[in-house]
Amino acid sequence: MDRKKHILPIIISSQFAGTSLWFAGNAIVEELTLKTGLGPEIIGFVLSSVQLGFIIGTLVFALLMIADRFSPSKVFFVCALLGAACNTTLLSEEISKWTLLLARFGTGFFLAGIYPVGMKIAADYYEKGLGRALGYLVGALVLGTAFPYLFSGTSWGSTPDLVIKTTSFLAILGGMLIWLLVPNGPFRKRSTKLQLKAGPKLFKISGFRKAAFGYFGHMWELYAFWAFTPLAIQTLNLLNTNTLSVSLWTGIIIGLGGLSCFIGGILSQKMGSYKVAKNALTISGLLCLLSPLLFQLPPSAFLLGWCLWGMAVTADSPQFSSLVASAIPNELKGTGLTLVNCIGFAISIVSIQLLSYLSITMDTKLLFVVLAVGPLLGLISLGRKFS
Prior knowledge:
- This protein is an all-alpha fold.
- The chain is built from 19 helices and no strands.
- The mean pLDDT is 86.
C-alpha cells in the first residue's frame, strides 16, 4: 500500500479531531454566560482568548523551532492531550471569568502544536501536490471548527457538558492516531540548532512575503466572520420573525468552508495555488461589501449568500499555506508556517475585538463591511504575479 495514501487520511482525521477544541467554548456560550455572569461581550472574550493563546503558542513554537527540531508527531500528540485537559476545565460547575479566559487561552496555546504542526507533517510527506494535501488538511480544520456548533445544534448536543466531553475525547484520539501511525516524513529535514533570526530572514524571500501578507488579509476576515455569523443569523431571525437554529446554521456555514478547501485543493492541481487563493479572496471581499444587501433578501437567499461566503472565506487558506511552504527551505518549513500563523491570528484578534465593540453601537446589517479591508490589502500584497 502506498504510504502516502495511508498517511493523509490519518493526518486529516487527526486534524479534524484536534481542532474541534477551537470553537467548543463558543458553541456553549449561553451556558458559560450563566456560569460566569458575563454579558454579550463574552463572545469576543471566549474566542479572543483562544486566539491570544494560539498567538503566544505559535510565537514560542516558532522562536524555539519546536516543529523543526523535534518529531512533529510527538509534538502533535502532547499538545492534543494538554489542549483537551484545558478544554475539560469548562466542565466545572462554577467558573470565574478569569478561569474561563485562562482555560481558553491554554486551549489556544496547545492548538499551536496541532494546526501548524499538522501542516508541517503534511509538508514532510508531500513535496509535490502540497496544495491539494493542505486543501484536505485545512478542510479538516474547518470541519473540526464547525463540529461543536453542528453537534450542539442536534439533540445529541443538547447538554453543553457533552459538547466539551466529546471534543476533548476527539482531541485525545486524534493525537494518539498521529503519534502511533504517522512517523517522520521522508522530506523532513531536521534543524539541529536554534536560529533566532529565522523570521526576519524568511521575510526577505519575495514569495514568502507575498503569500504571508495575502494570508494576513485573509485572517482579518476569517475568524471575525465565523465568530459573528451567529449574530447575523439572530438578526435575520428578528428581521423576518424566523426560528432558524443559530447553532445548526452556524455549523453548516462554517462546515461548508471545509468542502471549499477540498475543492480548492483539487483545483490547485490545475490552476496553481496562487490563482485559487486570489480568486477566493476576491469573492469573499466582494461579499463583505455586499453583506448589507444580503439582509434585505428573503431568508433562503440570505442563507445561500452566507453559505457561499462561508465557502469563499476559507478556500484560500490552505493555498496561502502551500505558497508559504513552497517558498522556503525544508529545514525552516515548520518555523515559517508557525510564524505566519502567529501573525495572522494576532490580526484576527484585532478584527474580532473591533467587531465586538462595533456590534454594540453599529447596525448589525452594516457590521461585516468592515471586514472588506483585509481582502483588499491581501489582494494588493499578492500583486499580479507570484514569485
